[in-house]
Design a protein that fits this description.
heterotetramer, A mainly alpha (249), B mainly alpha (494), C mainly alpha (81), D mainly alpha (130), C: 81 residues, mainly alpha, 0% strand, flat, D: 130 residues, Helix Hairpins, 5 helices, 75% helix
Amino acid sequence: MKRVVSLLFLAALAVLLLYVVANMPPMGDPQSPTRTHVVPKYLEDAQEETHAPNVITGIILNYRGYDTMGEVTVIFCALAGVLAVLGREKRGRIYAYADRSRVKSSTIVKTMVRFTVPFIILFSVYTILHGEISPGGGFQGGAIIGASMIIFTTVFGLYESSQRIPQKLRLPLEGSAVLTFFTVGVLGMVGGGNFLTYAWPHIAVSLQPAVVVWLTILVEIGIGLGGAMVFISILFSMIREGEEVAVVP
Amino acid sequence: MGAYRHFPIFMITIPLVGAVLLPFLGYLRQKWVPWAAAIPLVSSTILGSLLMGRMPAGGYLSYHMGNWDPPFGIEIRVDYVGLFLMLIVCGIALLALFFSRLYIFKEVSGGRLTAYYVLFLLLSGAMLGFVATGDIFNLFVFMEILALSSYALVAIAGNRNAVRAAFKYLLMGAPSSIIVLLAIGFLYSATGTLNMADLSARVAESGYTEVLMVAFILFVIGFGVKAALFPLHMWLPDAHSIAPSPISAILSGLLVEVSAFAVLRITFSVFTAGATNLVGGTLDAVSVFAAAAVLYGGIMAILQKDLKMMIAYSTISHVGYIFLGITAFTAEGVAGAMYHMLDHGLAKACLFLCAGSFIYVKGYRRIEDLKGAWRQMPWTCFAFALASISVIGIPPTAGFISKWYLVYGNFSRDRWPYALILLLGSILAAVYCLRVIYYMFFQPGKEGAWETVSKDAPSSMLAPIWILSAGTLFFGLFSSLLIPSLLRAAKFLL
Amino acid sequence: MGPALNIILIALLVITALTATFSRDLLAAVIIFSVYSLIMCLMWQRLQAPDLALTEAAVGAGVTTVLFVVAIFKTRRKEER
Amino acid sequence: MRLFHNYHYVAAMLLFCIGLYTVIVRRNIIKKLIGLNIMETAVFFFYISLGYMDNGIAPIRVGGAQPGQMVNPIPQALILTGIVVAVSVTALALSLVILLYRQYGTLDVDHLMRQEEDEGEGEKGKGAEG
């Protein structure tokens, strides 16, 4: 019964959606509203106004920076939620982890991972710092750092990796994305504009490009570090759940 | 305006940043966390009250994020109604926070204390941002903060029921967020903009009426889940009754209202400015569902044995009231819906906090256990009675004023069946509320269930309860403070 | 080349999505879902969205999959009847 | 026929419906979460196709690329936010799943609901206190 109702609902929804698609502007039409209204200004002026050749970086950090501030709050919120539900891993050395996710890895695998992880992190740093020119940016870089730590954890186990990135290091950095955004936002106000103004009206016009570029890089680094730490903390918290065994020191 | 224009953004960001800073304090001195958590909310409340005095009547405050002009940058748009709702959010959240300080040890273990307050601040900040934003995608972002923190807060007790209720909530809430995202996509494809003010102009002249119509339907479905509109309400009774009581108060008294407010804004400030024909059919369907919600919520509330469950079902019924007000499409109806958001927020928060106070003192959750409760807990019981009167809609309270405008708004557009259903809803509310009151005051308690010496909840818990219930009385007696400006705002929307 | 490749990719997307839905082995479903994400990432690259392709490869196919795998290790691998 | 021209959109809607089907009909909760992710990616796909134009190039202004040829950057910027939101929801949901399994020993929604009914109304109140 319930199944039939839900299938009927799905069928109705599918018909509705297809009806919309059949009436939408044709894809790639240069005359469609999405093409003619806001976009031309972004494409024309983004480089001069945000000093980021990658228009997307310009939009997410500058034009729609407030959205991105919300976005980093969302991942912080997810972290707070996961920690509220599962709890953080214990501090100190008296706990060992009997994690099942740890593969019995051979020396070859261990050496390979030890060798590649620094390069992955190097790549992610490049992604973070180069975000305004090439594809990528703070969040992608952070996710890549998180992924590299995931590889490390699957091979060496949680104990090893939580020694490399201890809680003391992660705790202050988890909120760094939100804090950087807030700082940049307030600096924009001090500089005479509104919240999240990068080109401060109070300073000389010739200095503005440099300020915008440096603030952009600052925000990218903040997002990258914050994102990476949040991912690592979420992962550690999920792996450690129910698997902590107290060991007499 | 000078520095005042910066106030809304600080009202939103200070709780969010406070939430980020709180873990440090939790790491160093956990004892101070409950007090420190109040600081951001207090400052938001102060900023909001200062701004309220400066608000131009009938005007609005538009704040351009990053100095980019609206269609290009994000705009925060606070009008009189929005600021009013933001102040309600701040106030009720603050009272629930103070209530939590002692109460929370009953339901949340010490290790999760910091996480509780962090999520609490995120929830409050997100609600403020959700109300204030003038950009439709930004609305989605804040909705997600709102949703994520509320899932986690429902689950925070960590026991079987809490986790199950939270997961049920998530399984309905997450798809609804995606549906809203899809609706935003449709809207964007037909208009090419995301700013609400700009949208309302472009919706009117857009040629893609089919796309816009379906986008509106999807918006109603998406926000309908969040606001627990009748056929989409399944998550609400569990989530609201099982969450810790201060969180129930926030979810029931604020979150539902804020989602209904989002529907109101989408309906009036995006779609109907010159495009009423687009949304007419959908709104008719919504009013049928809302009427069903009034009856269903009322009847289910009568059948409940658990006090918090009863209050939760009553919320479903009241969401129906709010939607009937919105769909009435008259200034009185809309103003009534807005006023109902206020008084339902106050009354429901008060009822849930009272239920929490019974749990705190005696651990009683069932309605039957409350027989003779007033002898031990007179203050809680009287506050409960006052809030119930507002829920029913009996004259000196705010509930009466809003219900009067709702009924009037529906009558004046020849929607008399809906007006009758509103009255019937009041009768149902009287049945379920008066039953509890009857048990509390006029039934002898079970042997040993209550101590004869009065040992009510501690005064730091009674104070929030009484402020809320006095609020329902205050806004009932002095409705002329707000009603004219709400009517003017509603006329402006139509 | 043009549309043909897109259509092939879309077909693959639908096939992987359906397989992920109907497979009884949860781990297999998750791995197929990560394949789905990777195909999606190729598709986005073809639609000229390199930023998103990078993000999807790192987040959708990487982090999300790992989170799913951890959750499956913590719970059970087979779907119940 | 516009439906054929918009085949990207049609595909996105199809995937959306597959995802929604998984969320509504499949009983396993991890399956439901996979369905949620499929739904999300489908919507992202829809947004990105919305921004595409024929012979467009990525919106990165290096090497003398002309603004007129670029695809629409706005949906891409929005979806970047969307992806982050999606992974956040998934992380929280999966941690709830782990806890749910520890307490109920099942991942099946029907089994969960049966256990809920077995506990009965009165037990529910007591359980939530502990």
